[in-house]
Amino acid sequence: MVRYVHYEVTCGILAVCATAVSAGVVVGVEGAPEAPRGVGPAIALGLLALACAAGFGVLTVSRLKWFGEGRDFDRAVALEEPGAVLPAPGKEYRTCVNVYLFVVMVASALGGGLLWWRTLALWPLLFAAAWLARGWRVARWERCHGLLLWIGPVHTGIREGGDRRLHSSVR
Questions:
Q1: Nearest to 7 by CA among 169, 163, 151
Q2: DSSP letter string over 4-64?
Q3: pTM over 0.70
């Protein structure tokens, strides 16, 4: 089991690292992309895309029916004995890192940047914005409710009912 916030923030950091790796390789091989009208409109368009992705990320953890999963947070199964179920300090961070996600993001960004359009090396930033916005929103929910949200299956120490994927413990 891992904390929901830690997983979202770690995925966002992995996406930023994948962007740095792929953009560095693409710029080293192909050169920097050229902007015929200057860099101002390109930067503005990029910031607009990042803002839209972050807004989408916040919507996915909202309480909107059929779209957000924020209402599932209230139905998270409470852990009766958190000490017996939760991972040891430090171990939860190692389980948050998704190496396969990093490899897939770097490979797709490199493929897009080298084979089609150099700017595609930056596309993992869209996921980073969404994941970091989700992490911020869930951290805010945890602070308001005094609970910690955990993701992952647990077979002992839980009450019946609720969402079996989400678990909560007292802060």
A1: 151
A2: HHHHHHHHHHHHHHHHHHHHHHHHHHH-PPP-TT-HHHHHHHHHHHHHHHHHHHHHHTS--
A3: yes
